[in-house]
Amino acid sequence: MAWSVALACASAGEPADVFRPGLEPDPDAAARIARGLHPAGTLTETGDTVLDFALWPYEDELFVGAFGSLDAARAGRVARALLVCDRRLFRLDDDARRVADTAAAALPGARCGVLVLHSVVRGCWFRWYEDAELRRDVFLTAEDGVIVDQGARLPAERPFWRALDAGAPDVPLPFDPEEFGLALAAAHMFGRGIADRGKDGFLPLELPLRRFKFGARARAGRGGPR
Fold first, then answer.
1. 3-state secondary structure of 128
2. pLDDT in tens, 167-191
3. Which of the 8 DSSP states describes residue 41?
């Protein structure tokens, strides 16, 4: 399966413990986070959808999900998880890094993974944050090899590097960038495969998100591929 993904995913705790039945969406928190991501833009809420639909937004859309639990809500605690789907991440530029950094800092004390995949451009961009601090930044493509490799490698990616560490060339890349990105998402973002329904019935792709539309002012100058 070919994936197109522009996703930031944060959790306050181990992902396998956070992403499971009992998560409750918080639409008000999602709206606050959306406007924090794009303070100069004009955003209009246009309803709800699920992560499966939101993974690759149109240029004029933004999807945000903030989640807690019934117990956390009663205790007045902050959200336990955050999802942001924003096509700006695909640009891999300063604005993409700003969106990634802002999403990573939106949930205090959380760990956050940012994953960008494209079904045509065979590459993967992945950033990993702990308590809003960037710890890992890697960008690689099937044709151009390893372009960025900064920070300590995460456990889930280590098997992919064995051939390169043994001296194999990185052009062409000796592994599939999509498999690399999905393995990182499973281990470090969701605690399970993004398309895997667990025995508990939980499927990450069914998580609900709020849908936002950029106004004309926000869209001005927003070029790039669709």
1. strand
2. 999 999 999 999 999 999 999 999 9
3. S
Give the span between the Cα atoms of 170 and 161, in whole angstroms: 10
Closest C-alpha to 24, from 85, 86, 75, 71: 71
Rounded to whole angstroms, the Cα distance separating 100 from 10 reads 11
d(CA 98, CA 139) in angstroms, rounded, equals: 17
Which tens digits make up the pLDDT trace of 42-81?
899 999 999 999 999 998 999 999 998 544 444 444 568 9
Q: How far apart are CA 38 and CA 218, in angstroms?
A: 8
What is the enclosing helix (H) or strand (E) of 163?
A: helix 162-165
- The answer, yes or no, to whether the previous bond of 208 is cis (omega within 30 of 0) is no
pTM greater than the 0.85 cutoff: yes
Query: Which helix (H) or strand (E) element contains residue 43?
Result: strand 43-50
- DSSP symbol at 176: -
Contact 49, 209 (CB under 8 A): yes
